């Protein structure tokens, strides 16, 4: 699509395919606006993209779109001016990756596995007939088989079973080659986050009828690290009363505290003296046992030692208790990118705006893209990474997150079934906590036999320096295999930057240019929905935000010629001579049903 000519007039041009931009693009397309959605990257999702194993390596080894020099003065009139945009502004830094398995399987090992397979195949029929040998053994006076003979048969069957299990284990030796062969089974997220089942994002997915295209998995357990031991946190009523880590008296205390928290608005006087004081002090004042305080603060409220009691009781704990369970999308939420195109939007990757064109009144009237094409528009929405410093408020500062993405050969705490795990650990410093997700094969994150562990916290140093010490507590980063800890197959450490301020635009920014940002350090996605809705309201005050799409059978056309087959594709972009383009990066994307099947 990079070399093709785009239509030269749109209602809205959106730069960046992050979550806020994608939701906004879908909302405008849904009400009939002509939307052009562009991104300098070669993938959808911007800072919240999702990748295969090979795609992840390419993401951190490839360069951003080259900033070609464009003579913008030749494309504008004397009374117009250009505002140059950032094309090569990286939001990731300090990335370090390492593969802990050999590139290929050693020949000797592969031969041994093949030979063992042959032996198993030959021995299996004999094993099935083995119990019949009891009939031929000596019997006691009552006609029963001798105990010694039964023991021999049992021992032999046990040995054969152990050989089978050893053979299965040996087949699960991972190599880089094997991981690349199963590349499409990986679904690795740059910014993994959760959805509260009664949160804004789930409500939006349901109301817009998009939920039917997305599969969800529930967080099945919450863990904590206490006294160098990983323990399961009792969160629900069932968990509390089945837990063996707390006594019956402590169970009653925990349940009573959680129930009283929901009555905060009815009994605010109980919290008044602590409203501006840390939540930690409030818990201490209640004379709660140490382990109960630990569970409540770090794993239920998930707050650090400095978070105020008012914030926790009015927002955090209430949301946690009322909006449980927490969900993770089985096909990543980046699928929302596609719905803009379903409603007629035009997508274009590896191509973006190089300049904003403004008139004498400092009103944006269009863009000049990286190919030198001038495109008219009424509104411009862009991710903060595209904005030059003159468009941003002078006082704002970037926030940064340290992240680790680690692929392991087993769970950090094994159980009878695959678990989708959330874990929160206090940092050595009082500020912030370390959040850990563990996503198994059942959540479509990786091939069978592997798990993906995501670790994040606010940045102090580099990502490796911030996160490696805590990861060493429950993961084995050595090449020599461990039986006690999960062995690391692959690791990636990186820092991610973003703007956390609500207002980030300067007074010099044109009134019809809107700059977006996401709280990438948040646990959930509700903030992105709120910002997209507010942005939509600023432009379309009276229109409904992402209403449910009508069924094709219910649509009545005034002009019969308009009733073309609805294939979910946007209008084809053609070259100047009228021939259809056959570029690899097409503006049209598959309908959601097709995309969901391809990604599943």
UniProtKB/TrEMBL annotation:
One of its GO terms (cellular component) is nucleus. It is found in: Cytoplasm. Pfam families: GDI (PF00996). Keywords: Cytoplasm, GTPase activation. Its main location: cytoplasm. Residues 111-130 have a biased composition (Basic and acidic residues). GO terms for molecular function: GDP-dissociation inhibitor activity; GTPase activator activity. GO terms for biological process: intracellular protein transport; small GTPase-mediated signal transduction; vesicle-mediated transport. The keyword Cytoplasm applies. It comes from the Eukaryota. The keyword Cytoplasm applies. Residues 101-146, 550-600 are annotated as: Disordered. PANTHER family: CHM, RAB ESCORT PROTEIN 1, RAB GDP-DISSOCIATION INHIBITOR. Substrate-binding subunit (component A) of the Rab geranylgeranyltransferase (GGTase) complex. Binds unprenylated Rab proteins and presents the substrate peptide to the catalytic component B. The component A is thought to be regenerated by transferring its prenylated Rab back to the donor membrane. Belongs to the Rab GDI family. This is Rab proteins geranylgeranyltransferase component A. It comes from Dimorphilus gyrociliatus.
């Amino acid at each position: 699509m990079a070399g093709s000519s785009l239509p030269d007039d749109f209602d809205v041009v959106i730069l960046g395919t992050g979550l806020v931009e994608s939701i906004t693009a879908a909302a405008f397309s849904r009400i009939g606006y002509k939307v052009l959605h562009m991104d300098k990257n070669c993938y959808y999702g911007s800072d919240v993209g999702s990748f295969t194993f090979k795609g992840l390596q390419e993401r951190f080894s490839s360069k951003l779109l080259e900033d070609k020099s464009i003579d913008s003065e030749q494309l504008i009139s004397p009374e117009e001016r250009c505002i140059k945009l950032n094309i090569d502004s990286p939001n990731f830094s300090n990335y370090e990756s390492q593969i802990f398995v050999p590139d290929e399987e050693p020949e000797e090992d592969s031969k041994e596995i093949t030979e063992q397979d042959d032996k198993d195949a030959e021995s299996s029929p004999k094993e099935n007939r083995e119990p019949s040998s009891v009939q031929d053994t000596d019997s006691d006076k009552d006609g029963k088989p001798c105990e010694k003979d039964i023991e021999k048969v049992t021992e032999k069957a046990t040995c054969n079973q152990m050989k089978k299990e050893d053979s299965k284990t040996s087949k699960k030796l991972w190599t880089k080659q094997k991981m690349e062969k199963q590349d499409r089974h990986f679904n690795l997220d740059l910014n993994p986050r959760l959805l509260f089942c009664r949160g804004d994002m789930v409500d939006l997915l349901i109301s817009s009828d998009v939920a039917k295209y997305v599969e969800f998995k529930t967080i099945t357990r919450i863990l904590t690290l206490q006294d160098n031991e990983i323990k399961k946190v009792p969160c629900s009523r069932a968990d509390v009363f089945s837990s063996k880590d707390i006594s019956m008296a402590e169970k009653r205390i925990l349940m009573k505290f959680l129930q009283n928290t929901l009555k905060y608005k009815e009994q605010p006087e109980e919290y008044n003296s602590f409203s501006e004081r840390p939540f930690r002090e409030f818990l201490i004042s209640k004379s709660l046992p140490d382990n109960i305080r630990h569970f409540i603060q770090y794993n239920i409220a998930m707050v650090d030692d400095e978070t105020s009691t008012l914030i926790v009781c009015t927002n955090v704990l209430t949301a946690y208790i009322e909006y449980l369970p927490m969900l993770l999308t089985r096909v990543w939420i980046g699928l929302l990118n596609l719905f803009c195109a379903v409603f007629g939007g035009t997508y274009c990757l590896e191509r973006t705006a190089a300049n904003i064109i403004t008139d004498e009144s400092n009103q944006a009237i269009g863009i000049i893209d990286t190919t030198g094409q001038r495109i008219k528009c009424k509104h411009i929405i862009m991710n903060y990474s595209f904005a030059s410093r003159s468009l941003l408020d002078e006082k704002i500062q970037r926030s940064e997150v340290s992240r680790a993405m680690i692929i392991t050969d087993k769970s950090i705490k094994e159980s009878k079934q695959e678990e989708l795990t959330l874990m929160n650990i206090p940092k050595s410093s009082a500020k912030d906590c370390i959040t850990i997700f563990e996503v198994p094969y059942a959540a479509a994150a990786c091939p069978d036999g592997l798990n993906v562990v995501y670790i994040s916290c606010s940045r102090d140093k580099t990502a490796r320096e911030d996160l490696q010490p805590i990861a060493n507590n429950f993961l084995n980063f050595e090449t020599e295999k461990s039986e006690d800890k999960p062995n690391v197959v692959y690791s990636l450490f990186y820092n991610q930057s973003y703007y956390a301020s609500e207002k980030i635009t300067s007074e010099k920014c044109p009134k019809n240019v809107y700059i977006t940002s996401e709280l990438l350090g948040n646990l959930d996605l509700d903030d992105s929905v709120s910002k997209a809705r507010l942005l939509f309201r600023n432009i379309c005050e009276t229109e409904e935000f992402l209403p449910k799409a009508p069924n094709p059978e219910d649509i009545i056309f005034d002009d019969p010629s308009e009733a073309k087959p609805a294939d979910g594709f946007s209008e084809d972009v053609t070259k100047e001579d009228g021939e259809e383009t056959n570029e690899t990066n097409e503006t049209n994307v598959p309908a959601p049903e097709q995309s969901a099947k391809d990604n599943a």
